[in-house]
Design goal:
It comes from Brevundimonas balnearis. Keywords: 4Fe-4S, Iron, Iron-sulfur, Metal-binding, Oxidoreductase. InterPro entries: DPD_II (IPR028261), FAD/NAD-bd_sf (IPR036188), FAD/NAD-binding_dom (IPR023753), GltD-like (IPR006006), Helical_ferredxn (IPR009051). This is NAD(P)-dependent oxidoreductase. It is a single chain. The protein is α/β, with parallel strands linked by helices and 479 residues long. The protein folds into 3 domains: 113 residues, Fumarate Reductase Iron-sulfur Protein, Chain B, domain 2; 164 residues, FAD/NAD(P)-binding domain (3-Layer(bba) Sandwich), CATH 3.50.50.60; 156 residues, FAD/NAD(P)-binding domain, CATH 3.50.50.60. The chain is 35% helix and 16% strand. The chain contains 20 helices and 16 strands. The strands form 4 sheets. It has a 5-stranded parallel β-sheet with strand order 3-2-1-4-16, with helices on both faces. Strand 7, helix 16 and strand 8 form a beta-alpha-beta unit. The longest helix is centred in the last third of the chain and has 23 residues.
């Protein structure tokens, strides 16, 4: 039998079929089609099966990528899936939303040596979809019930990944979230054209079928005291994420028509669920017919500009203070946005929002230039004298990033230590906070980051909580 692998010389790179821009902006469906089985096997066969797999080290989850690519190429899809889910609580989601061009695919040896990269993310998505379609994904069934419980605060990717691993280890797990649906940013932040909601829901259904309890519409500190939460459970994981928007400080930024990105995206996703959203219906969080300016350069900004196009905006412009090469968002998402008609103003920073308190008419921006690289290698910028320009706008969306809420105040727990950035302080190389039995993971520890990092942190936190609870049960940790 001929070897089914290392065929990158014979098999050309082929990504998934992508709907045309004109076709895909008509709705919020995912723009990429899933691989057919034959294509998935063929693309998997391109893997060079490197002795040192840089794709694996480039993945925050350290997924066994060459192993499941080899199995997929050999037609052993179920075994490939088993390898994929061994290191990831949600492969089919990461396969959709990860910026593979900056992670595994960008690190691929073929990419680094002048060949086209292996389409790792698309194969990962295909494996996940195949697994659900064929019944390879089953409810969590712990081998033993440990008689201890864990409360997880936050139903986003970090909290869900931790709940998955903790329930599999035999703990009773309750996930608390302030929203009426679980999923966090997977549900209410990421638009459907990147992640259709049924993909998230089937993960949630699996957790519920396996015994994970969800208490939704419960805000810790308001509806349930943090002290009571700790009393209910043997351990607590804080995985709230960071949702407090960074706001513009330029003149006019308080005018009606200047809105935070997450408010805008949540409203759009709620409409997709069929919810009543008065602020969308009255136009405050709706881009239809408007000249939209989005300020920011990350993936949230890309989600906003592409959502605005689908809502029927008259024009959509993105202002970013650095150049294209230094944009933090995925290059793939920038290209998709350009195809869909978004105009980018690179090296442009907002100076003022024009108009009055009752509405905006435009944004005055300053031209910027790259100045020097800082210690982290990121370029600083400086203003170009005389380079001011104006762009018309009826709606200005702030996509400037997120900061943590004041959790010690919200939780009435002053002993919960924070870092200088307001994130939860954890002991070095652990997820343990300054409160006994309380752990933290995800963006609330590392700051706003990628879904895949939240999954990694949630899984690591689950392993640490498991070890701590086992030690406590055996008497090695004082109660």
């Amino acid at each position: 039998m001929a070897d089914a692998n290392q065929k990158f010389v014979l098999v050309p790179h082929a990504g998934p079929v992508k709907a045309s821009a004109a076709e895909r902006v008509a709705d919020f469906g995912e723009i990429y089609s899933g691989f057919a089985e034959q294509v998935a096997q063929s693309q998997s066969s391109r893997c060079a099966q490197c002795g040192v797999p840089f794709c694996q080290s480039g993945c925050p989850l350290e997924n066994n990528i060459p192993d499941w690519l080899r199995l997929a190429a050999e037609g052993r899809a179920e075994e490939a899936w088993a390898q994929a889910e061994a290191t990831s609580a949600m492969p089919e989601i990461c396969g959709r939303v990860c910026p593979q061009d900056r992670l595994c695919e960008g690190s691929c040896t073929l990419e680094q040596s002048g060949w086209d990269t292996v389409t790792i993310g698309s194969v990962e998505r295909w494996l996940g979809d195949m697994a659900f379609e064929n019944g390879w994904v089953t409810p969590i069934a712990p081998r033993v019930e440990r008689g201890q419980s864990v409360g997880v605060v936050g139903a986003g990717p970090a909290g869900l990944a931790a709940a998955d691993r903790l329930r599999a280890a035999g703990y009773a797990v309750t996930v608390y979230d302030r929203h009426d649906r679980a999923g966090g940013l997977l549900t209410y932040g990421i638009p459907g054209f990147k992640l259709e909601k049924h993909v998230v829901q089937r993960r949630l259904d699996r957790l519920a079928a396996g015994g994970v309890t969800f208490e939704l519409g419960v805000e810790i500190g308001r509806d349930l005291a943090f002290a009571e939460l700790r009393a209910r459970h043997d351990a607590v994981l804080v995985a709230t994420g960071v949702y407090q928007a960074r706001r513009l400080t330029a003149p006019g930024c308080g005018s009606q028509g200047v809105i935070p990105a997450l408010d805008y995206l949540i409203a759009s996703n709620r409409k997709g669920f069929g919810d009543a959203v008065p602020a969308f219906d009255d136009g405050r969080l709706n881009a239809q017919g408007k000249r939209v300016v989005v300020i920011g350069g990350g993936d949230t900004a890309m989600d906003c500009v592409r959502t605005a196009v689908r809502q029927g905006a008259a024009t959509v412009t993105c202002l970013y203070r650095r150049d294209r090469a230094n944009m933090p968002g995925s290059a793939r998402e920038v290209a998709n946005a350009e195809e869909e008609g978004v105009r980018f103003e690179w090296l442009a920073a907002p100076r003022a929002v024009l108009g009055g308190a009752d509405g905006v008419t435009g944004v005055r921006a300053a031209r910027m230039a790259l100045a020097a690289q800082d210690a982290d290698g990121r370029w600083t910028v400086e203003e170009v004298q005389g380079g001011d320009f104006e762009t018309p706008a009826d709606l200005v969306i702030e996509a400037l990033g997120f900061e943590p809420e004041d959790l010690p105040a919200l939780f009435d727990s002053s002993d919960l230590a924070l870092t200088e950035w307001g994130t939860i302080r954890t002991a070095r190389r652990t997820k343990a906070t300054t409160l006994e039995g309380v752990f933290a993971a995800g963006d609330i520890v590392r700051g706003a980051s990628l879904v895949v990092w939240a999954v990694r942190d949630g899984q690591d936190a689950a392993a640490e909580i498991d070890a701590w609870l086992r030690a406590r049960a055996s008497g090695r940790v004082a109660a």
